[in-house]
Amino acid sequence: MAILTKILAILLLFFGEAAAIYMESFAAKNYTSFQFFSLFTLKILLLVLLSGGCLVTAYIMGYRVFKNIWVVAVSSITAILIIEPILIYLFFRQLPTTGAWIGLILGAVGFVVTLVL
């Protein structure tokens, strides 16, 4: 049961980070002028609530099952390192630079090391 809870916490973390990055990219690409009561703002606010809820839940669950906040923090950073280049490419059609690819690889290695050790 504990392994399933760990997996769920990591999945929630990745989903929450993906929703947050999606929201940021969506806002950056589609922003024309700020109107508080607009459909655009409503979409952004709903994504903020969804991503925030997932992230808070993932941090709570993750800390309880891993008994170490650093595992949760490294998982969060790794989620960003993996998901952000993919979503940025999908939104803006720009490929990551060499440094971004190196960061992605080092982040993934750090994630695996953190979970194993």
Q: Strand share of the residues?
A: under 5%
SS field, number of helical segments: 4
Question: How big is the Rg?
Answer: 16 Å
List segments where confidence is low: pLDDT < 50 over at least 5 consecutive residues. none
Shape estimate: flat
Q: Please identify the structural class as seen in this structure.
A: mainly alpha
Average residue-wise pLDDT: 87
SSE diagram, text form:
Layout: H1 2-30, H2 39-66, H3 69-92, H4 98-116
Helix pairs in contact: 1-2, 1-3, 2-3, 3-4
Q: Which features characterize this protein?
A:
117 residues; mainly alpha; 4 helices; 85% helix
Explain what the structure shows.
With 117 residues, the protein is mainly alpha-helical. The chain has one domain (2-116). The chain has helices spanning 2-30, 39-66, 69-92, 98-116. Helix 1 runs antiparallel to helix 2 and helix 2 packs antiparallel against helix 3 (69-92). 20% of the residues are buried. The mean pLDDT is 87.
Quick summary of this structure?
With 117 residues, this protein is an all-alpha fold.
